[in-house]
Amino acid sequence: MENKFELQKTEKGFLFLPMKGSDTAKFGGIGVCDFCANYAAEGKLIPALNCYYCNDCFERWNRDASYYPEDSNYENRKAQYYLEILNNH
Ligand SMILES: [Zn+2]
After folding, report:
1. Which of 28, 50, 51, 79 could in theory staple to 34 by disulfide, Cβ–Cβ 3.0 to 4.6 A?
2. Ligand 1 centre from 62 Cα, in Å?
3. Residue range 58-68: average pLDDT?
4. What is the distance, to the nearest Å, from the Cα of residue 34 to the centroid of all Cα atoms in its chain?
5. Is 43 helix (H, G, I), strand (E, B) or coil?
6. What three-state secondary structure class fits 66?
7. Ligand 1 centre and the CA of 78: distance in Å?
8. Distance (Å, rounded) from C-alpha 26 to C-alpha 13?
9. For residue 57, what pLDDT is reported?
10. Is the pLDDT of residue 68 over 60?
11. How far is the CA of 54 from the centre of ligand 1 (A)?
12. What pairs with residue 16 in β-bridges?
């Protein structure tokens, strides 16, 4: 089976999963940006935060956030958790 969702990484090192708002239903979401609360037909899931952000908020967040390499184990575990849900439902 071909995996539909693929992990990507920002230049700072944050993992994210591009997806459609409707995809968030697979883990109980409703496609609403967790930052600005607007519906986002397309956005990005940030495993480390357990958040789905619209593209604008994602850009802003990635610009301002600091990446801590010591958090990467946690981040990877969360990312695999989401990937499993997304690719198996
Ligand atoms: Zn937003």
Report:
1. 51
2. 13
3. 96
4. 11
5. strand
6. coil
7. 21
8. 25
9. 98
10. yes
11. 4
12. 8
Question: 67 C-alpha vs ligand 1 centroid, how far in Å?
Answer: 20
Is the pLDDT confidence value at 2 over 60? no
Q: Where are the domains of the chain?
A: 8-87
CA 1 / ligand 1 centre spacing (Å): 32
Distance (angstroms) between ligand 1 centre and the Cα of 52 equals 9
- CA pair distance 79, 36, nearest whole angstrom: 22
pLDDT digits (tens, 9 = 90+) for 4-55: 899 999 999 999 999 999 999 999 999 999 999 999 999 999 999 999 999 9
Prediction pTM value: 0.92
Token reading at 88: 């198996």
